[in-house]
Design brief:
The structure holds two protein chains of two kinds. By secondary structure, chain A is mainly alpha-helical. Chain A is built from five helices and no strands. The longest helix of chain A is centred in the first third of the chain and has 17 residues. Chain B is of the alpha/beta class. In chain B, the strands form eight sheets. Chain B has a five-stranded parallel β-sheet, with helices on one face. In chain B, strands 13-12-11-17 form a four-stranded parallel β-sheet, with helices on one face. In chain B, strands 22, 23, 24 and 25 form a four-stranded antiparallel β-sheet that branches. In chain B, β23 and β24 form a beta hairpin. In chain B, α2 runs parallel beside α8 and α2 packs across α9. The chains are: A mainly alpha, B alpha/beta. The interface between A and B is large, with 29 and 47 residues.
Protein backbone atom coordinates (compact mmCIF):
# COMPACT_ATOMS: atom_id res chain seq x y z
CA UNK A 1 0.00 0.00 0.00
CA UNK A 2 1.19 3.50 -0.87
CA UNK A 3 2.53 5.20 2.26
CA UNK A 4 0.53 8.41 1.70
CA UNK A 5 -2.72 6.52 1.20
CA UNK A 6 -2.08 4.56 4.37
CA UNK A 7 -1.47 7.81 6.29
CA UNK A 8 -4.72 9.25 4.95
CA UNK A 9 -6.59 6.15 6.06
CA UNK A 10 -5.02 6.43 9.49
CA UNK A 11 -5.97 10.08 9.83
CA UNK A 12 -9.52 9.37 8.64
CA UNK A 13 -9.88 6.48 11.03
CA UNK A 14 -8.55 8.59 13.86
CA UNK A 15 -11.06 11.33 13.06
CA UNK A 16 -13.83 8.75 12.89
CA UNK A 17 -12.70 7.24 16.17
CA UNK A 18 -12.84 10.68 17.77
CA UNK A 19 -16.13 11.74 16.25
CA UNK A 20 -18.24 8.69 17.07
CA UNK A 21 -19.20 9.15 20.67
CA UNK A 22 -20.90 5.75 20.93
CA UNK A 23 -17.52 4.10 20.50
CA UNK A 24 -16.69 5.71 23.81
CA UNK A 25 -19.48 4.19 25.86
CA UNK A 26 -17.74 3.59 29.19
CA UNK A 27 -16.84 7.31 29.30
CA UNK A 28 -20.47 8.13 28.61
CA UNK A 29 -21.51 5.90 31.47
CA UNK A 30 -19.11 7.60 33.87
CA UNK A 31 -20.30 10.98 32.59
CA UNK A 32 -23.85 10.04 33.58
CA UNK A 33 -22.68 9.56 37.15
CA UNK A 34 -21.23 13.10 37.08
CA UNK A 35 -24.71 14.40 36.19
CA UNK A 36 -26.17 13.25 39.53
CA UNK A 37 -24.57 16.29 41.17
CA UNK A 38 -23.33 18.46 38.33
CA UNK A 39 -26.28 18.18 35.97
CA UNK A 40 -26.27 17.30 32.30
CA UNK A 41 -23.32 18.91 30.49
CA UNK A 42 -22.14 19.97 33.98
CA UNK A 43 -24.73 22.76 33.90
CA UNK A 44 -24.81 23.05 37.72
CA UNK A 45 -21.16 24.19 37.76
CA UNK A 46 -22.37 27.44 36.13
CA UNK A 47 -19.15 27.84 34.15
CA UNK A 48 -18.80 31.09 32.23
CA UNK A 49 -17.46 29.08 29.29
CA UNK A 50 -17.17 25.34 28.70
CA UNK A 51 -13.93 23.68 29.74
CA UNK A 52 -11.75 22.03 27.13
CA UNK A 53 -10.86 18.35 27.38
CA UNK A 54 -7.40 19.32 28.59
CA UNK A 55 -8.69 21.74 31.23
CA UNK A 56 -11.21 19.19 32.50
CA UNK A 57 -8.60 16.41 32.60
CA UNK A 58 -6.16 18.65 34.46
CA UNK A 59 -8.85 19.67 36.91
CA UNK A 60 -9.91 16.07 37.63
CA UNK A 61 -6.30 14.92 38.01
CA UNK A 62 -5.59 17.85 40.34
CA UNK A 63 -8.52 16.74 42.56
CA UNK A 64 -7.29 13.16 42.46
CA UNK A 65 -3.73 14.09 43.42
CA UNK A 66 -5.02 16.56 46.03
CA UNK A 67 -3.23 19.46 44.33
CA UNK A 68 -6.55 21.26 44.17
CA UNK A 69 -8.53 21.46 47.41
CA UNK A 70 -11.98 19.90 47.38
CA UNK A 71 -14.74 19.02 49.79
CA UNK A 72 -15.60 15.80 47.98
CA UNK A 73 -14.14 15.59 44.47
CA UNK A 74 -10.85 14.21 45.80
CA UNK A 75 -12.76 11.31 47.35
CA UNK A 76 -14.65 10.68 44.11
CA UNK A 77 -11.81 11.06 41.58
CA UNK A 78 -9.72 8.61 43.60
CA UNK A 79 -12.14 5.93 42.49
CA UNK A 80 -11.10 6.29 38.86
CA UNK A 81 -7.96 5.61 36.84
CA UNK A 82 -6.22 8.49 35.09
CA UNK A 83 -7.36 6.99 31.78
CA UNK A 84 -10.98 6.95 32.92
CA UNK A 85 -10.77 10.59 34.03
CA UNK A 86 -9.23 11.57 30.72
CA UNK A 87 -11.88 9.66 28.79
CA UNK A 88 -14.75 11.23 30.71
CA UNK A 89 -13.18 14.69 30.30
CA UNK A 90 -12.93 14.10 26.56
CA UNK A 91 -16.52 12.95 26.41
CA UNK A 92 -17.88 15.86 28.46
CA UNK A 93 -15.93 18.49 26.53
CA UNK A 94 -17.39 17.21 23.25
CA UNK A 95 -20.97 17.82 24.38
CA UNK A 96 -20.79 21.59 24.09
CA UNK B 1 -1.05 6.04 21.34
CA UNK B 2 -3.42 3.32 20.16
CA UNK B 3 -2.02 0.72 17.83
CA UNK B 4 -2.94 0.37 14.14
CA UNK B 5 -4.90 -2.74 14.98
CA UNK B 6 -6.81 -0.76 17.57
CA UNK B 7 -7.72 1.83 14.92
CA UNK B 8 -9.02 -0.80 12.56
CA UNK B 9 -11.06 -2.43 15.32
CA UNK B 10 -12.58 0.90 16.23
CA UNK B 11 -13.17 1.79 12.59
CA UNK B 12 -15.01 -1.47 12.07
CA UNK B 13 -17.21 -0.95 15.12
CA UNK B 14 -17.78 2.69 14.15
CA UNK B 15 -18.96 1.70 10.68
CA UNK B 16 -21.34 -0.89 12.07
CA UNK B 17 -22.66 1.66 14.56
CA UNK B 18 -23.17 4.17 11.75
CA UNK B 19 -25.03 1.52 9.81
CA UNK B 20 -27.17 0.82 12.85
CA UNK B 21 -27.84 4.54 13.09
CA UNK B 22 -29.13 4.58 9.48
CA UNK B 23 -31.42 1.68 10.19
CA UNK B 24 -32.82 3.56 13.16
CA UNK B 25 -33.55 6.56 11.00
CA UNK B 26 -35.38 4.42 8.48
CA UNK B 27 -37.68 2.92 11.07
CA UNK B 28 -38.07 5.77 13.49
CA UNK B 29 -41.72 5.05 14.20
CA UNK B 30 -41.09 1.44 15.20
CA UNK B 31 -40.59 0.68 18.85
CA UNK B 32 -37.64 -1.57 19.63
CA UNK B 33 -38.87 -2.89 22.95
CA UNK B 34 -41.13 -2.07 25.87
CA UNK B 35 -39.61 -1.52 29.30
CA UNK B 36 -42.05 -1.32 32.21
CA UNK B 37 -40.93 0.12 35.53
CA UNK B 38 -42.73 -0.51 38.83
CA UNK B 39 -42.17 2.30 41.33
CA UNK B 40 -41.35 5.95 40.65
CA UNK B 41 -38.86 6.78 43.38
CA UNK B 42 -35.30 7.89 42.70
CA UNK B 43 -34.45 4.49 41.17
CA UNK B 44 -37.50 4.09 38.93
CA UNK B 45 -37.61 7.69 37.74
CA UNK B 46 -33.87 7.79 36.98
CA UNK B 47 -34.04 4.49 35.11
CA UNK B 48 -36.98 5.68 33.00
CA UNK B 49 -35.28 8.95 32.12
CA UNK B 50 -31.88 7.38 31.38
CA UNK B 51 -33.31 4.68 29.09
CA UNK B 52 -35.21 7.30 27.09
CA UNK B 53 -32.14 9.52 26.82
CA UNK B 54 -29.96 6.64 25.66
CA UNK B 55 -32.47 5.18 23.21
CA UNK B 56 -35.72 7.05 22.47
CA UNK B 57 -36.95 4.08 20.40
CA UNK B 58 -37.45 2.06 23.56
CA UNK B 59 -40.97 2.51 24.91
CA UNK B 60 -40.96 3.18 28.66
CA UNK B 61 -43.96 2.89 30.98
CA UNK B 62 -43.61 3.92 34.63
CA UNK B 63 -46.21 2.57 37.05
CA UNK B 64 -46.46 4.68 40.19
CA UNK B 65 -49.40 4.77 42.58
CA UNK B 66 -48.88 8.35 43.74
CA UNK B 67 -49.44 11.42 41.56
CA UNK B 68 -46.54 13.20 43.22
CA UNK B 69 -43.32 12.06 44.82
CA UNK B 70 -42.04 13.20 48.21
CA UNK B 71 -38.30 12.92 48.63
CA UNK B 72 -37.00 11.19 51.74
CA UNK B 73 -33.74 13.14 51.41
CA UNK B 74 -34.36 16.49 53.04
CA UNK B 75 -37.35 15.20 55.02
CA UNK B 76 -35.36 15.24 58.28
CA UNK B 77 -34.72 18.93 57.65
CA UNK B 78 -38.43 19.54 58.29
CA UNK B 79 -37.81 18.91 62.01
CA UNK B 80 -35.32 21.78 62.12
CA UNK B 81 -37.73 24.05 60.23
CA UNK B 82 -35.36 24.28 57.26
CA UNK B 83 -37.85 23.04 54.69
CA UNK B 84 -41.45 21.86 54.36
CA UNK B 85 -43.36 19.06 52.67
CA UNK B 86 -44.36 21.32 49.79
CA UNK B 87 -40.71 21.98 48.94
CA UNK B 88 -39.93 18.26 48.98
CA UNK B 89 -42.71 17.44 46.51
CA UNK B 90 -41.83 16.49 42.95
CA UNK B 91 -44.14 16.04 39.97
CA UNK B 92 -43.92 13.37 37.26
CA UNK B 93 -44.91 15.83 34.53
CA UNK B 94 -41.40 16.42 33.20
CA UNK B 95 -40.80 12.71 32.76
CA UNK B 96 -43.90 12.55 30.58
CA UNK B 97 -43.52 15.84 28.73
CA UNK B 98 -39.77 16.01 28.12
CA UNK B 99 -38.89 12.36 27.66
CA UNK B 100 -42.06 10.68 26.41
CA UNK B 101 -42.32 8.32 29.35
CA UNK B 102 -45.83 6.99 29.90
CA UNK B 103 -46.66 7.40 33.59
CA UNK B 104 -49.55 5.29 34.89
CA UNK B 105 -50.82 6.16 38.37
CA UNK B 106 -52.00 2.73 39.46
CA UNK B 107 -50.94 -0.03 41.80
CA UNK B 108 -49.49 -3.32 40.61
CA UNK B 109 -51.37 -6.41 41.79
CA UNK B 110 -49.05 -9.07 40.38
CA UNK B 111 -46.16 -9.88 38.08
CA UNK B 112 -46.54 -12.80 35.69
CA UNK B 113 -42.88 -13.38 34.90
CA UNK B 114 -43.49 -16.32 32.58
CA UNK B 115 -45.92 -14.33 30.45
CA UNK B 116 -43.77 -11.16 30.57
CA UNK B 117 -46.79 -9.31 31.88
CA UNK B 118 -47.99 -7.41 34.94
CA UNK B 119 -51.53 -6.95 36.23
CA UNK B 120 -52.65 -3.69 37.80
CA UNK B 121 -55.19 -3.56 40.64
CA UNK B 122 -57.72 -2.25 38.10
CA UNK B 123 -57.27 -5.63 36.28
CA UNK B 124 -55.45 -4.02 33.35
CA UNK B 125 -52.59 -6.13 31.98
CA UNK B 126 -49.39 -4.62 30.60
CA UNK B 127 -46.84 -6.73 28.76
CA UNK B 128 -43.12 -5.99 28.79
CA UNK B 129 -39.88 -7.09 27.17
CA UNK B 130 -37.95 -6.10 30.29
CA UNK B 131 -39.31 -5.16 33.67
CA UNK B 132 -37.63 -2.96 36.26
CA UNK B 133 -38.87 -3.41 39.82
CA UNK B 134 -38.02 -0.47 42.09
CA UNK B 135 -40.75 -0.46 44.75
CA UNK B 136 -38.68 0.60 47.77
CA UNK B 137 -39.17 -0.79 51.26
CA UNK B 138 -41.81 -2.25 53.53
CA UNK B 139 -41.60 -2.64 57.29
CA UNK B 140 -41.21 -5.79 59.36
CA UNK B 141 -43.81 -5.62 62.11
CA UNK B 142 -43.10 -9.13 63.42
CA UNK B 143 -40.04 -8.15 65.44
CA UNK B 144 -41.92 -6.38 68.27
CA UNK B 145 -45.13 -6.69 70.25
CA UNK B 146 -47.82 -4.08 70.69
CA UNK B 147 -47.15 -1.94 67.63
CA UNK B 148 -47.81 -2.32 63.93
CA UNK B 149 -49.02 -0.38 60.91
CA UNK B 150 -52.33 0.41 62.65
CA UNK B 151 -50.69 2.41 65.45
CA UNK B 152 -48.35 4.50 63.29
CA UNK B 153 -50.73 7.44 63.82
CA UNK B 154 -49.56 7.72 67.41
CA UNK B 155 -46.08 6.22 66.93
CA UNK B 156 -44.94 7.44 63.49
CA UNK B 157 -41.97 5.91 61.71
CA UNK B 158 -41.64 8.88 59.33
CA UNK B 159 -39.38 6.64 57.21
CA UNK B 160 -41.45 7.32 54.13
CA UNK B 161 -41.71 11.08 53.71
CA UNK B 162 -45.10 12.78 53.74
CA UNK B 163 -47.98 12.44 56.19
CA UNK B 164 -45.76 10.53 58.61
CA UNK B 165 -43.18 13.34 58.59
CA UNK B 166 -45.87 15.93 59.31
CA UNK B 167 -47.27 13.76 62.10
CA UNK B 168 -43.94 13.35 63.86
CA UNK B 169 -43.10 17.02 63.43
CA UNK B 170 -46.47 17.96 64.94
CA UNK B 171 -45.77 15.76 67.97
CA UNK B 172 -42.35 17.38 68.40
CA UNK B 173 -43.93 20.84 68.28
CA UNK B 174 -46.65 19.88 70.80
CA UNK B 175 -44.19 18.37 73.27
CA UNK B 176 -43.52 20.33 76.48
CA UNK B 177 -40.08 21.72 77.31
CA UNK B 178 -38.35 19.01 79.28
CA UNK B 179 -39.98 16.18 77.33
CA UNK B 180 -38.28 13.06 76.00
CA UNK B 181 -38.11 12.02 72.36
CA UNK B 182 -37.13 8.39 71.79
CA UNK B 183 -35.89 7.37 68.35
CA UNK B 184 -35.69 3.59 67.90
CA UNK B 185 -33.19 3.11 65.08
CA UNK B 186 -33.59 0.08 62.80
CA UNK B 187 -31.20 -2.87 62.40
CA UNK B 188 -29.11 -3.24 59.23
CA UNK B 189 -29.77 -3.23 56.33
CA UNK B 190 -32.17 -0.32 56.03
CA UNK B 191 -32.97 2.74 53.93
CA UNK B 192 -30.62 5.68 54.58
CA UNK B 193 -28.00 4.49 57.12
CA UNK B 194 -27.19 7.98 58.51
CA UNK B 195 -30.90 8.94 58.59
CA UNK B 196 -31.74 8.28 62.26
CA UNK B 197 -28.71 10.29 63.41
CA UNK B 198 -29.40 13.20 61.09
CA UNK B 199 -32.97 13.12 62.41
CA UNK B 200 -31.73 13.33 66.01
CA UNK B 201 -29.49 16.25 64.97
CA UNK B 202 -32.33 18.14 63.29
CA UNK B 203 -34.69 17.56 66.22
CA UNK B 204 -31.96 18.70 68.63
CA UNK B 205 -31.48 21.85 66.56
CA UNK B 206 -35.16 22.66 67.03
CA UNK B 207 -35.26 21.71 70.72
CA UNK B 208 -32.14 23.74 71.54
CA UNK B 209 -33.92 26.88 70.37
CA UNK B 210 -37.42 26.20 71.66
CA UNK B 211 -37.34 23.49 74.36
CA UNK B 212 -33.78 23.34 75.68
CA UNK B 213 -34.60 21.17 78.72
CA UNK B 214 -35.72 18.29 76.52
CA UNK B 215 -33.83 15.17 75.57
CA UNK B 216 -33.55 12.85 72.57
CA UNK B 217 -32.68 9.23 73.31
CA UNK B 218 -31.60 7.03 70.43
CA UNK B 219 -32.09 3.32 71.13
CA UNK B 220 -29.95 1.44 68.64
CA UNK B 221 -29.88 -2.28 67.87
CA UNK B 222 -26.46 -1.70 66.27
CA UNK B 223 -23.07 -1.28 67.96
CA UNK B 224 -21.96 1.41 65.53
CA UNK B 225 -23.45 3.65 62.87
CA UNK B 226 -22.68 5.60 59.71
CA UNK B 227 -20.40 8.64 60.11
CA UNK B 228 -20.46 7.94 63.88
CA UNK B 229 -17.39 9.91 64.92
CA UNK B 230 -18.45 12.92 62.86
CA UNK B 231 -21.97 12.88 64.29
CA UNK B 232 -20.66 12.54 67.84
CA UNK B 233 -18.11 15.29 67.29
CA UNK B 234 -20.92 17.54 66.04
CA UNK B 235 -23.25 16.60 68.89
CA UNK B 236 -20.47 17.40 71.41
CA UNK B 237 -19.93 20.77 69.84
CA UNK B 238 -23.54 21.87 69.40
CA UNK B 239 -25.69 19.76 71.72
CA UNK B 240 -23.45 19.07 74.78
CA UNK B 241 -23.25 15.37 73.95
CA UNK B 242 -21.65 13.39 76.78
CA UNK B 243 -22.68 15.90 79.46
CA UNK B 244 -25.68 15.44 81.81
CA UNK B 245 -27.62 18.18 80.02
CA UNK B 246 -26.94 16.72 76.56
CA UNK B 247 -29.80 17.08 74.12
CA UNK B 248 -28.89 13.72 72.55
CA UNK B 249 -28.11 10.36 74.15
CA UNK B 250 -27.15 7.30 72.12
CA UNK B 251 -27.69 3.86 73.66
CA UNK B 252 -26.54 0.76 71.81
CA UNK B 253 -28.90 -2.05 72.83
CA UNK B 254 -27.52 -4.72 70.49
CA UNK B 255 -27.84 -7.50 73.11
CA UNK B 256 -30.98 -6.10 74.62
CA UNK B 257 -33.42 -5.38 71.79
CA UNK B 258 -36.78 -3.61 72.05
CA UNK B 259 -39.42 -6.29 72.65
CA UNK B 260 -42.58 -4.38 73.32
CA UNK B 261 -44.09 -0.97 72.70
CA UNK B 262 -47.28 0.48 74.10
CA UNK B 263 -48.42 3.06 71.54
CA UNK B 264 -50.79 4.70 74.07
CA UNK B 265 -48.41 5.26 76.98
CA UNK B 266 -45.35 5.36 74.67
CA UNK B 267 -43.57 2.96 76.96
CA UNK B 268 -40.76 0.90 75.48
CA UNK B 269 -39.59 -2.35 77.02
CA UNK B 270 -36.40 -4.20 76.14
CA UNK B 271 -35.42 -7.85 76.38
CA UNK B 272 -33.72 -7.36 79.78
CA UNK B 273 -36.75 -5.48 81.07
CA UNK B 274 -35.34 -1.98 80.73
CA UNK B 275 -38.09 0.60 80.33
CA UNK B 276 -38.03 3.90 78.54
CA UNK B 277 -40.89 6.39 78.65
CA UNK B 278 -41.24 8.69 75.66
CA UNK B 279 -43.34 11.80 75.12
CA UNK B 280 -42.65 11.52 71.41
CA UNK B 281 -41.86 8.06 70.12
CA UNK B 282 -40.33 7.53 66.68
CA UNK B 283 -40.07 3.79 66.16
CA UNK B 284 -38.31 3.04 62.85
CA UNK B 285 -39.04 -0.64 62.15
CA UNK B 286 -36.75 -3.22 60.63
CA UNK B 287 -37.16 -3.31 56.85
CA UNK B 288 -37.47 -5.56 53.80
CA UNK B 289 -38.15 -5.16 50.08
CA UNK B 290 -41.65 -3.81 49.34
CA UNK B 291 -44.70 -6.06 49.04
CA UNK B 292 -44.75 -6.55 45.26
CA UNK B 293 -41.17 -7.86 45.35
CA UNK B 294 -42.11 -10.26 48.18
CA UNK B 295 -45.17 -11.67 46.42
CA UNK B 296 -43.61 -12.09 42.97
CA UNK B 297 -40.71 -14.32 43.93
CA UNK B 298 -37.97 -11.71 43.62
CA UNK B 299 -36.76 -11.91 47.26
CA UNK B 300 -34.45 -14.43 48.91
CA UNK B 301 -34.55 -15.49 52.57
CA UNK B 302 -33.10 -12.12 53.62
CA UNK B 303 -36.28 -10.38 52.42
CA UNK B 304 -34.35 -8.41 49.78
CA UNK B 305 -33.86 -9.00 46.03
CA UNK B 306 -30.62 -10.60 44.83
CA UNK B 307 -29.38 -9.33 41.45
CA UNK B 308 -26.56 -9.80 39.00
CA UNK B 309 -24.49 -6.71 39.73
CA UNK B 310 -23.43 -5.97 36.18
CA UNK B 311 -26.99 -5.77 34.81
CA UNK B 312 -29.08 -5.60 38.02
CA UNK B 313 -31.12 -8.46 36.54
CA UNK B 314 -32.74 -10.64 39.17
CA UNK B 315 -30.90 -13.89 39.86
CA UNK B 316 -34.31 -15.47 40.56
CA UNK B 317 -36.48 -14.38 37.61
CA UNK B 318 -35.32 -13.66 34.02
CA UNK B 319 -35.81 -10.31 32.24
CA UNK B 320 -36.69 -8.58 35.51
CA UNK B 321 -34.24 -6.07 36.96
CA UNK B 322 -34.39 -4.85 40.55
CA UNK B 323 -32.86 -1.54 41.64
CA UNK B 324 -33.05 0.87 44.56
CA UNK B 325 -33.65 0.05 48.22
CA UNK B 326 -35.42 -3.27 47.47
CA UNK B 327 -32.36 -4.76 45.77
CA UNK B 328 -29.16 -6.22 47.19
CA UNK B 329 -26.36 -4.01 45.91
CA UNK B 330 -24.25 -4.28 49.07
CA UNK B 331 -21.74 -2.90 49.91
CA UNK B 332 -23.54 0.05 48.28
CA UNK B 333 -25.87 1.48 50.95
CA UNK B 334 -29.59 2.02 50.43
CA UNK B 335 -29.68 5.71 49.58
CA UNK B 336 -31.30 8.01 47.01
CA UNK B 337 -27.90 8.67 45.46
CA UNK B 338 -27.25 4.92 45.19
CA UNK B 339 -30.73 4.33 43.73
CA UNK B 340 -29.98 6.93 41.05
CA UNK B 341 -26.58 5.31 40.35
CA UNK B 342 -28.03 1.79 40.22
CA UNK B 343 -30.74 3.05 37.86
CA UNK B 344 -28.16 4.40 35.44
CA UNK B 345 -26.13 1.19 35.44
CA UNK B 346 -29.37 -0.75 34.92
CA UNK B 347 -30.48 1.58 32.10
CA UNK B 348 -27.15 1.21 30.27
CA UNK B 349 -27.35 -2.57 30.69
CA UNK B 350 -30.93 -2.78 29.40
CA UNK B 351 -30.20 -0.55 26.41
CA UNK B 352 -27.17 -2.73 25.61
CA UNK B 353 -29.22 -5.93 25.93
CA UNK B 354 -32.02 -4.62 23.71
CA UNK B 355 -29.54 -3.39 21.09
CA UNK B 356 -27.45 -6.57 21.42
CA UNK B 357 -24.32 -4.64 22.32
CA UNK B 358 -21.81 -6.01 24.84
CA UNK B 359 -22.47 -4.68 28.34
CA UNK B 360 -20.02 -2.28 29.96
CA UNK B 361 -18.05 -2.46 33.16
CA UNK B 362 -20.13 -0.30 35.48
CA UNK B 363 -19.10 2.21 38.10
CA UNK B 364 -21.30 3.43 40.93
CA UNK B 365 -20.80 6.57 43.00
CA UNK B 366 -22.58 7.14 46.29
CA UNK B 367 -22.52 10.20 48.51
CA UNK B 368 -24.63 10.74 51.62
CA UNK B 369 -24.81 14.20 53.15
CA UNK B 370 -26.22 14.81 56.63
CA UNK B 371 -26.87 18.05 58.46
CA UNK B 372 -25.79 18.40 62.12
CA UNK B 373 -27.22 21.93 62.47
CA UNK B 374 -28.86 24.24 59.93
CA UNK B 375 -25.41 25.39 58.83
CA UNK B 376 -23.09 22.46 59.56
CA UNK B 377 -22.94 19.29 57.49
CA UNK B 378 -20.94 16.11 56.99
CA UNK B 379 -20.67 13.58 54.19
CA UNK B 380 -19.56 10.08 53.29
CA UNK B 381 -18.67 9.03 49.75
CA UNK B 382 -17.51 5.91 47.91
CA UNK B 383 -16.85 4.69 44.39
CA UNK B 384 -17.66 1.07 43.53
CA UNK B 385 -16.68 -1.24 40.68
CA UNK B 386 -17.11 -4.92 39.94
CA UNK B 387 -14.42 -7.23 41.31
CA UNK B 388 -13.11 -10.32 39.51
CA UNK B 389 -16.03 -12.37 40.83
CA UNK B 390 -18.50 -9.95 39.28
CA UNK B 391 -19.55 -8.59 42.67
CA UNK B 392 -19.63 -4.94 43.68
CA UNK B 393 -16.58 -3.83 45.66
CA UNK B 394 -15.34 -0.53 47.04
CA UNK B 395 -12.50 0.98 45.03
CA UNK B 396 -9.42 0.99 47.22
CA UNK B 397 -8.22 4.47 48.10
CA UNK B 398 -11.50 6.12 47.08
CA UNK B 399 -14.24 7.67 49.17
CA UNK B 400 -14.30 8.36 52.89
CA UNK B 401 -15.87 10.88 55.20
CA UNK B 402 -15.49 14.66 55.57
CA UNK B 403 -11.76 15.07 56.19
CA UNK B 404 -11.69 18.25 58.28
CA UNK B 405 -14.10 19.30 60.99
CA UNK B 406 -13.33 23.02 61.07
CA UNK B 407 -16.23 25.47 60.81
CA UNK B 408 -15.52 26.39 57.20
CA UNK B 409 -15.48 22.77 55.99
CA UNK B 410 -18.67 21.87 57.86
CA UNK B 411 -20.40 24.99 56.52
CA UNK B 412 -19.35 24.08 52.97
CA UNK B 413 -20.66 20.54 53.46
CA UNK B 414 -24.03 21.92 54.60
CA UNK B 415 -24.23 24.18 51.54
CA UNK B 416 -23.32 21.21 49.34
CA UNK B 417 -25.93 19.03 51.05
CA UNK B 418 -28.68 21.51 50.13
CA UNK B 419 -27.35 21.91 46.57
CA UNK B 420 -27.05 18.13 46.24
CA UNK B 421 -30.74 17.61 47.00
CA UNK B 422 -31.75 20.00 44.23
CA UNK B 423 -29.31 18.35 41.81
CA UNK B 424 -30.33 14.74 42.46
CA UNK B 425 -34.03 15.61 42.20
CA UNK B 426 -33.43 17.39 38.90
CA UNK B 427 -31.26 14.57 37.59
CA UNK B 428 -33.85 11.95 38.49
CA UNK B 429 -37.20 13.64 37.80
CA UNK B 430 -36.66 16.65 35.54
Amino acid sequence: MNKTVFQIILITLFALYNSVSTADVPAKMIAYSCYSCHGEKLINLKLSQPLSALELTQSLLAFKNRIKSASIMDRITNGFTDAELKAVANYLSQLN
Amino acid sequence: MPSRRHFIKFAASSVSLLAAGCQNMQSKSSVKAHVVIIGGGFAGASAAKTIKKLDPLIQVTLIEANKQYLTCPGSNWVFAGLTDIQSLTVSYQNLQRLYGIKVVHERVASIEAEKHSITLTNQQKISYDRLIVSPGIDFRWDTIEGHDESSTDSVPHAWKAGVQTTLLNGQLHNMHDGGTVVICAPPNPYRCPPGPYERASMMAYYLKQHKPNSKIIILDPKTQFSKQHLFIQGWRKYYDFGKPNSLIEWHSIADNPVLRIDPKSKLIETDFGDRFKADVLNYIPAQKAAHIAQTSGLCDDSGWCPVNHQSSESTLLPDIHVIGDASIHAPIPKSAFAANAEAKVCAFAIVSLINQIDPMQPTWINTCYSLITAEQGISIAMVYKLNQLGKIAKVKGAGGVTADTDEITLALEATNAKKWLKSIVADSFM
